[in-house]
Amino acid sequence: MHHFQYVGGKLMCEGVSVESLARKHGTPLYIYSQNTLADHFGRLDSALTELDHTICFAMKANSNLAVIRTLANLGSGFDIVSAGELKRVIAAGGDPAKCIFAGVGKTEEEIEYALQQGIYSFNVESEPELVRINRVAARLKKIAPIAVRVNPNIDAHTHAKITTGTYENKFGIAFEQVEGVYARASKLKNLRLRGIQMHIGSQLTQVKPYELAVKKVLPLVQKLASKYSFEFFSVGGGLGVVYDPALESGSPAWWKTAKAKNILTPSSYAEKLVPLLKPLGLKILLEPGRFITANAGILVTRVEYVKRTGKKNFVIVDAAMNDLIRPAFYDSYHEIVPLTKKGGAKISSDVVGPICESGDIFCKNRPLPKVGEGDYLALLSAGAYGFVMASNYNARGFAAEILVNGKNAAVIRARQPVEEIWASEKIPQWLK
Ligand code: LLP
Known about the structure:
The protein is built from 13 helices and 21 strands. The chain has 432 residues and is α/β, with parallel strands linked by helices. Strands 4, 14, 15, 16, 17, 18, 19, 20 and 21 form a nine-stranded mixed sheet that branches. β14 (297-308) and β15 (313-317) form a beta hairpin. The longest helix is centred in the middle third of the chain and has 21 residues, at 208-228. The protein starts with a strand and ends in an 11-residue tail after the last helix. The chain binds ligand LLP. Ligand LLP binds next to α11 and α12. Ligand LLP is lined by residues 58, 61, 79, 102, 162, 164, 199, 202-203, 236-239, 287-291, 326, 330, 385.
């Protein structure tokens, strides 16, 4: 459930009018709903009460300090992929002891920092990485907790750029090799074999691929868990969200019908996976990113021009692919709605940004209400892989971010002044 709804024809985020925020803080503007974050976290958490479990939010989806703090306050751990993300957790008041460190390219410095902070586990993606972690731990006179990331070679049937669990992907260690890798790891003195991990992909809207992957790795997990006294099994993240229709999917009624429509929900996920996982007697970790934050955030933009060519109705807005790259990069769908509900006939429109790239498009040939200069639009489901993937392309400063809680709204990231973009650049003496 999410808290972006029309009330009296005006789009509201919880108890705050989105347009009032856009007028006050300017656009492009990211707005997040704190109660939606809490609702999503709580739904998943309570669906899994039968398991000893920890949700480790995959903060690559949204790493704003206020979002991290919201989730840390709810008891979340974090799935991190860099020392920078661990520093963010600490800056936000999160607990490093609830962090698991994934990624195929951890540097010596990152491993050292993570060991010093006392993270829960490294999710190891190759044998050379195991050797490196052992070496760094020995140097620091520490024991490094590790889990091997199993690549179960199961196709998650999602977008090619976000499938991770097949042998076409760079992630994890091939299923058939995992046992041998643990045997060799057990001989490395500065490692503690704390658990095992898998992750098959992102934006999974069906439970089936999870079920197949868990069933496939379960005998291996059981065998290794008793041999090496594992503490945990991480089943990864990837729980999908509804991008279309995003607005409608916020209503409680929709959640009731989701199950009937065979769309993954925390309860359908738990229904299939809890009976498989519970007999293991291990702590179960989950690494959801998108599920927690995607529908908890929107990107608000202002219409600058409407340009009709012979063929097209281009709605040119002030947000661009540098603010939200998902449509350009993955051809992904984000529902686009006006902040003030409009009646009348819909016009087939392309909503485009000002960047000088043909790919700077938010939607193509989409029936949208008639809009004009100065109208505001919201791109929905922009709370995951939105701001975090932003860039300064075309010397465009980062958008501001707002967190809403009930009737309160706070700036959680100020709009970036453009001068800051080149603040660390230098002109060499010989050019002066
Ligand atoms: N765990 C691991 C090891 C991962 O690689 C990922 C995501 C997650 C957890 C969290 O997945 P989630 O629950 O958010 O689906 N930028 C892309 C998504 C990339 C996902 C990368 N890995 C997008 O905008 O769709």
